[in-house]
Design a protein that fits this description.
mainly alpha; Arf Nucleotide-binding Site Opener, domain 2; 3 domains; elongated
């Protein structure tokens, strides 16, 4: 009997009866991959182990399925990456091989990136990044550079608080471009919208004290910004590839923090350092990565049981 997807329950039953991805491909490869992806998304009680194995398989049809299946998750729109990843991975069991994980995460990243493109929003690489809530909260734990995670004295670097807000820290190497992240020029002169946001002045305005070009501490009244700093829904990934790398790092982090066999647990500043230059040559904001770390530390990524 030829298989079609008009009856999702019948399709799911036939799919679940397959003993391997190879057998599943033989069953479904004559069908449009878009229709199969929708049927697997809409089906109830889809075998999570078989689905994961198919999404990670090297067969060309499976690779197309790995890209098409996550496009059905319109719920990704407006979500941050960790809750989106949680909802996605709950649908199937993630295979153990790195190449398979990469294929699956590339499909996820493509879908997430597509569903979260916002017309007219400030880009993650622009001077407006402070408006979407980044570089405004010092990562907790040992004081580290908010941009690269380096500790004071590590790799010959010294830390200094931004002189505009006196709240977030940059190492000597990163504070050269602190103004690109909404803070004082070279971390020393003036202030930026990141300083205002860190001090809570973005919404109502107030007075900010900063070091001026003559080296004097100066108080100045500032008004509310036209950008209101709220917890951002928008991930600062610059591309699908950059997002995929971040997702892979999140998978590795949950294994490190929650696998009892791993004795040496990754610290927050190490997680920041691990992700230096992975965002298309740039970094993810330290406070953004800190929020991811806290989320994963509080609850591991869970997959649906077999």
């Amino acid at each position: 009997m030829a298989l079609d997807v008009s009856d999702v329950d019948v399709f799911t039953s036939r799919f679940n009866a397959c003993s391997s991805p190879k057998e599943a491909v033989a069953l479904i490869s004559h069908l449009p991959v878009e229709a199969v992806a929708r049927a697997l998304y809409n089906g109830t009680n889809v075998d999570p182990t078989l689905l994961g194995a198919c999404l990670g398989h090297h067969h060309a049809y499976c690779q197309s399925l790995a890209n098409e299946y996550p496009l059905s998750f319109t719920s990704f729109r407006g979500m941050d990456v960790v809750p989106a990843l949680r909802s996605y991975l709950w649908r199937f069991r993630l295979p153990g091989e790195s190449a398979q994980i990469e294929r699956i995460l590339t499909g996820f990243a493509t879908s997430f990136f597509k569903h979260n493109q916002t017309e007219g929003a400030p880009s993650a690489g622009s001077a407006d990044r402070a408006a979407i809530g980044f570089y405004i909260a010092q990562p907790p734990g040992p004081t580290c550079c908010i941009h690269c995670g380096v500790l004071d004295g590590q790799h010959g670097q010294t830390l200094q608080a931004c002189q505009g807000c006196n709240l977030v820290y940059f190492c000597r190497r990163c504070r050269i471009l602190a103004c690109h992240r909404g803070h004082a020029a070279a971390g020393n002169i003036g202030f930026g919208r990141g300083c205002q946001a860190a001090l809570g002045l973005e919404v109502k305005g107030g007075t900010i004290t900063f070091t001026d070009g003559s080296g004097r501490r100066t108080a100045q009244a500032v008004g509310a910004s036209r950008w209101v700093t709220i917890k951002p829904a928008r991930c600062p990934a610059k591309s699908v590839d950059a997002l995929m790398v971040l997702c892979y790092a999140i998978i590795m982090l949950t294994t490190n923090l929650h696998n009892p066999k791993v004795k040496t647990k990754m610290k927050l500043h190490e997680f920041l350092q691990q992700n230096v230059s992975v965002n298309d040559g740039g970094n993810y904001p330290g406070d953004y990565l800190a929020a991811i770390y806290a989320d994963i530390e509080g609850e591991e990524l869970k997959v649906q049981p077999a």
